[in-house]
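Predict the assembly for these two chains.
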Amino acid sequence: MASKVIHAIYNDDDILMHAVKDVRAANYHIEEVYTPFPVHGLDKVMGLEPTRIAITSFMYGLVGLAVAIIMMNFIMIEDWPQNIGGKPSFSYIANMPAFVPIMFELTVFFAAHLMVITFYMRSKLWPFKKAENPDVRTTDDHFLMAVDAGNHDIEKLTQLLHNTGAIEISLIDNDEDH
Amino acid sequence: MYTLPSKLKLFAIIFMVVGAIGIVTGFLTAPGSTAEVKEMMADHHGDDHASEASHAVTIDSHGESHNETTVDASHAMEQAGEHGENAHDSEEAHLEHTLHQMQNRPWSALYIACFFFFMIALGALAFYAINYAAQAGWSPVLFRVMEGITAYLVPGGIIMFVLLGLSGFHINHLFVWADPEVVAHDKLLQGKAGWLNGTALMIRAAIFLGGWFLYRHFAVKFSRESDNEDGNTSFKKTFRISAAFLVFFIYTESMMSWDWLMSFDPHWFSTLYGWYVFAGMMVCAITTIAMVAIYLKSQGYLEFVNDSHIHDLGKYMFGFSIFWTYLWFSQFMLIWYANIPEEVTYFVTRIEDYKLPFFGMLAMNFIFPVLLLMNSDYKRVNWFVVLTGIVVLAGHYINLFVLVMPGTVGTSWYIGIPELGALCFFFGLFVFVVFTALTKAPLLVKNNPFVKESKNYHY
């Protein structure tokens, strides 16, 4: 189902922030905002939920720690408890200081890498992905706010966007919902 | 301006009085002769002596072996070669040994508590200097709190100096190397006598303390002056002396930790010891800054301190706790791994005789803050920071306890009246000095070039 979207382009992040506030105050739905760099506080103004990626990272870290402990307990203590240089291989705890560097590194390794992969998956990023860029200038020095036109009065919405300081406003047919 | 509430004053005085009673009790109940020790042991251990001969425990300390016959490990009365001489199986030598340990106990308790609060003030001073030298934009609203905490440096340092004098010149028996009789029979201590002797100890302590007092004096003076001036002259002066102080501090702090803590085990040495003590000091100082700030904020005095400042302090507590653990583990693991007898005795005595405090403080100083302060939201919850802070401070007291006690009282340790008394006394003194100092100047710096940024700080 084809829907219409209005693209409003701004050339200053401060004006953009105010525009986002105004548009939301007028109860329009902002589909997306494209910026060339992180605009601090934009997520709050847009009302986006906080990320949970730190929580996933913590859990991945625990997984890494568990992997390290289970692996070394099996290899060094259960499977073949050799006497290597007099290190006590009777139980895991008896030889634990020697395992801590690996436990630490694997915790960090799992926490970091799995979190990054989670980030790629959640934000749908991968090589050869087709760029979803409505306007090339948004990667350089322009800011674009995409407002869902829906069944609203286009004239009124355009006027509102114009008043918020948009330098370009265009109505776009949005075929592919992404 | 902050005025000292009379309730707080009374609170501090009660702690000082109760603490002083505890300290005096500790000294009075320490045994004066081997006969008294015998009596006390009979009271405490009853017929356990029957099993005495069946448990032979060999503790290898200070690079020499001692074969000592003892009662079972829970109240083993031998201390690993405090005097570096071969202890004999004879009852009298054993009692003599225990007597020295018991007489050391109130002194050690006093020393640990004194150093604990002194190091909070010293750590706060270093943190203050770092914030000036780094031109931190978040912290100027907390500068007066830090200045207040560093006020304890002077009285605490003077008491520390007196205690060091008493120990270094062998008035008490805290430093083994200060006992000329022990040194006469000990090649290792003779070799170290050039550094480890009473006079040198006091000269160094005077230099360290003098330098720290001097920086504290001028930093606070310039900070007060800057309230009444237009330009940045005072700020620039503080910036310069802070940078110079930090250089001075890191050398003197390292040497101070050899002198004041590592020399309790004069046969043992570790190269990262200074950093290790420093890390513990910083954790305690930052925790104290956070707790005092939260207290003053709750009383409505720190208008511009918001959750973000507490959040930052929480992050520092978290980070320095991990840093402390990193150094603790590095020191422990290197020695455990290589297992060189002359080094490893240090940990053997601690694990054998101080198992619970030794590993318990690790949980308190590492696992607790890591789990509680990892969440960003929790660092903004004041009571969470205070709760973690209390555990961290208690953990670092135990850390000091485990650093000092094995070298002075050995197995005769206990956390009882002398320890708690000393802790109460210095806590009361600390609260009294710090909060009195806070009344001396407005709680917000004026004209600091970063204070506006700090007031509006938001994370």
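The mean pLDDT of chain A is 91. Chain A has two domains: 4-36+141-177, 53-122.
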